[in-house]
Amino acid sequence: MTSFGDLLGPQPVLLTGDDEAESELLNGADAAAIAAAHPTASVAWAQLAETALTAAGEPADTGKVIEAYAYARTGYHRGLDQLRRHGWKGFGPVPWNHEPNQGFLRCVGALARAADIIGEEDEHLRCLDLLNDSDPTAIQHLGLA
């Protein structure tokens, strides 16, 4: 049985993460430098996207929102690559409580926020669906509920 109670569903995907990138972020290193040095680390792209969204303010600075969108989409795609290498087939649990999964899930959340701000409703809803399918608690953890 999977962690979400589905007897027939795939097992949860647990990414291995990037210890060096995560450590550098925790120690306050520049997220752009980390993304450049570790371009496959979704956690660095998530940090860049979230920082740009915060900087966008209210009313939102469209340039910052587009910057966040681009960072989030990059981290999202890097995360999809990692998920596939770990056996993910495009569906199934990606638990929030497994910390290395959070970079990918944070990118999806930032992409949802940015898409919502620019009025890209289809993308916003797709991202929310992906988060809900990955882990029903992710939307709450990301403040999207």
Q: How large is the share of residues in beta strands?
A: under 5%
Q: Segments where pLDDT lies below 50 for 5+ residues?
A: none
Task: Name the helicity range.
Answer: 55-70%
Give the H and E element order: HHHHHHH
C-alpha end-to-end distance: 27 Å
C-alpha Rg (nearest Å):
15 Å
Shape: globular
Strand elements, count: 0
Average pLDDT across residues? 95
Query: What kind of sheet is the major sheet?
Result: none
Total DSSP helices: 7
Number of domains: 1
Class based on secondary structure composition and strand pairing: mainly alpha
SSE layout:
Layout: H1 19-26, H2 31-37, H3 42-56, H4 62-85, H5 102-117, H6 121-134, H7 138-141
Helix pairs in contact: 2-3, 3-4, 3-5, 4-5, 5-6
How would you summarize what this structure contains?
With 145 residues, the protein is mainly α.
Can you put this structure into words, describing what you see?
The radius of gyration is 15 Å and the shape is globular. The chain is built from seven helices and no strands. The chain is mostly helical and 145 residues long. The protein has one domain. Helix 4 packs antiparallel against helix 5 (102-117) and helix 5 (102-117) packs antiparallel against helix 6.
Structural features:
single chain, about 140 residues, mainly alpha, 7 helices, about 60% helix, about 0% strand, globular
